[in-house]
Amino acid sequence: MSMRKTLLFFFSVCWSLAGSAESSPDLGQKAPGDFLKQGNYDVFPDGEGLPEGLGNARQGEAIYSQHCQTCHGLKGEGGSAEELAGALHGLTDNPPDKTIGTYWPYATTLFDFIRRSMPLSAPGSLTNDQLYAVTAYLLYINHIIKSEDEISAKTLPRITMPNHDGFINVFDGQE
Amino acid sequence: MHDELKPIAEGGLLDRRFFLKKGLTFTSIAWLAPSAMAEAVRSDAMTAPGRALSNYGNPSNHENKVIRWTMGNAAAPGNGVSWTPLHALEGMITPNGLHFERHHNGVPDIDPDNHRLLIHGLVNRALVFKIEDLLRYPMTSRYCFIECGGNSNAGWHTEPMQTEAGYFHGMASCSEWTGVPVKILFDEAGIKGRAKWVIAEGADASMMSISLPLEKLLDDCLLAFYQNGERIRPENGYPVRLLVPGWEGVLNVKWLRRLRLTNRPVMARNETAKYTELLPNGKAEQFSFVMGVKSLITRPSYGQQLTKPGLYEIIGLAWSGHGKIVKVEVSADGGKSWAEAQLQEPVLSRCFTRFRIPWQWEGKKAVLKSRAIDDQGNQQPERHELIQAKGKHGYFHYHAIVSWAIADDGSVSHVYA
Q1: Given CB atoms, is A38 within the 8 Å cutoff of chain B?
Q2: Is B280 within 8 Å of A18 when comparing Cβ atoms?
Q3: What's the gap in Å between the CA of B272 and the closest CA on chain A?
Q4: What CA–CA distance (Å, rounded) separates B410 from B366?
Q5: Which phi and psi (to 5°) does residue B230 adopt?
Q6: In terms of Cα–Cα distance, which of B232, B364, B371 is closest to B292?
Q7: Closest chain B residue to A163, measured at CA
Q8: Among A24, A30, A95, whose Cβ lies nearest the Cβ of B393?
Q9: Strand, helix or coil for residue A49
Q10: For residue B102, how many other CB atoms are within 10 A of its CB?
């Protein structure tokens, strides 16, 4: 069915379910400004949310070998965790070779995800400079940037990933 | 042969009302049977006191094979999946201890007194909530399945994987979830006109985020605190998770700490690198939220054994992220002929629906299939139809018809048929 119909259906269901603003006990407290700042890790493709700092692939290689290689393998392949680099062929082959270089549409997602979740043994332990450096290293081993390119809040959003145009938004596109 | 014993499709499928009619007869015979029990020796359990009371019950020791099957990364045991043993369960509700899991970095131990939920972004007032305060809000319950977007993805394999139904398709579970409609809290914060998306984030070590359309959250999503009547367990998001009825499991963010209203998706890892479906032309579908219409025969299924020819009840589960199941048909001849199964009440939107149909097995080879249709007109596809439409490398959203082959000896295997 069309998305419009789906939504109409949703709204009719929710009307009876969700109540109105008047039914709220109104117990939310005004969020303090510093709480909002600390709690905000979102990085958008246009760079919104990226912190200060910078790093390059050469610096990133050392961080990668110390914190990432055990699971992700040498140069992002052959580990127990998912393959990050080293695609031998593309997305239309059988089987397709999905890596950061062949599949990920935005470079900013790398920084966002690594800062949130990695390394598994100590998430949140890398400094912003280290995060930029390891992001640079992953872009470098995917042949997207050069080893000396400095990655920062300014340069990261400017990188166009090889598969930038590879996605079809079936939610907004559906009608 | 009585009318009700006449098959209504090839392979011995009987009218779905057969047991209903026959049931009365069986019952009356049981009542009239001589009381053999009276002369039986008292069993051990009948001659000694049983165990003492307990604060929290556990399943019988005799049911210790009915467990989640877990698969973790050897280097990081908290990174993995566990499957619900659908093949061993009945009814429509998954016991809390058997609900499937997907964790990226373990199950956090969260003290609800220290947990906060933040609602911010495109709102008039950024608000922070304590759990004890949220528990004072008006709540509602709904019966609802949660299914991982990657459930059943071994179905894409070239050869049919031989494993129990639950350890193949059991990244889907169904519970009664109770909580506060998200809309109430968003109204309290005051939604700004430009808001269109919401970023949800969990408070575990992975702290992953994902974007959802605001309309869905306003429509039928809950901040869930209770699962099947008790507080949600840590592995399911204690103290609070997002419930997003009918949509990919990954959106039902556990250990929820933040909802941020925005004008665009954040393009997190789990809406770009993962949970996107690669098509044969190299493009990938993104934001394909709704879990498709699906069904599965759970008995008989792989690993089970038919002991001798005779009357069996075929049972299974059907569900759809689009709405209610309206019909499940079963075939015993590999899809050449179909018979309508009985849908067990209640039949609810975006919820597991139990189906049943009687079957006379004659001790010969048979191929069993089920196919579901929902109230939006979606029909579960055959595997070759799904592959024709989406290719073989979509990885997520596999919902094709499942086929079980019954051998002459009554053993059951998984086949592509």
Answers
A1: no
A2: no
A3: 6
A4: 10
A5: -115, 160
A6: B371
A7: B283
A8: A95
A9: coil
A10: 17
Classify burial at B80, counting beta carbons within 10 Å of its beta carbon; exposed 0-12, middle 13-18, buried 19 or more: middle
What residues of chain A lie within 8 A of the CB of B286, using their CB? 167-171
The phi, psi pair for B271, rounded to 5°, reads -130, 10
Half-sphere exposure of B121 (CA within 13 A, CB side): 27
Exposure of B338 in the CB half-sphere (CA atoms within 13 A): 11
Is the minimum CB–CB distance between A103 and chain B shorter than 8 Å?
A: yes
Distance CA A170, CA B286 (A): 6
For chain B, the straight-line distance linking the first and the last C-alpha, in angstroms and rounded, comes to 32
pLDDT per residue of chain B (417 residues) written in tens, 0 to 9: 555 578 889 999 999 888 766 654 443 334 444 555 555 789 999 999 999 999 999 999 999 999 999 999 888 889 999 999 999 999 999 999 999 999 999 999 999 999 999 999 999 999 999 999 999 999 999 999 999 999 999 999 999 999 999 999 999 999 999 999 999 999 999 999 999 999 999 999 999 999 999 999 999 999 999 999 999 999 999 999 999 999 999 999 999 999 999 999 999 999 999 999 999 999 999 999 999 999 999 999 999 999 999 999 999 999 999 999 999 999 999 999 999 999 999 999 999 999 999 999 999 999 999 999 999 999 999 999 999 999 999 999 999 999 999 999 999 999 999
Determine the distance in angstroms separating the CA of B136 from the nearest CA of chain A, rounded to an integer.
Answer: 8
Does B127 sit within 8 Å of A29, measured CB to CB? yes
Type of residue at B227 = Q
Contact at CB, A39 and B79, closer than 8 angstroms: no
Nearest CA in chain B to A70: B75
Q: Name the residue among B127, B283, B323 with its Cβ closest to that of A168.
A: B283
What distances in angstroms separate CA B119 from CA A36, A73, B158, one per listed residue?
Answer: 9, 39, 46
Q: What is the rounded distance in angstroms from the CA atom of residue B249 to the CA atom of residue B353?
A: 18
The owner of tokens 């990885």 is B395
Q: pLDDT digits over A98-150, tens only?
A: 999 999 999 999 999 999 999 999 999 999 999 999 999 999 999 999 999 99
**Contact of B207 with B253, CB cutoff 8 Å:** no
Complex confidence, ipTM: 0.92
Q: How far is A44 from chain B (nearest CA, A)?
A: 5
With beta carbons less than 8 A apart as the criterion, state whether A157 and A96 touch: no
Q: Evaluate whether A148 touches A59 at the Cβ level (below 8 Å).
A: no
CA B307 to chain centroid, in Å, comes to 29
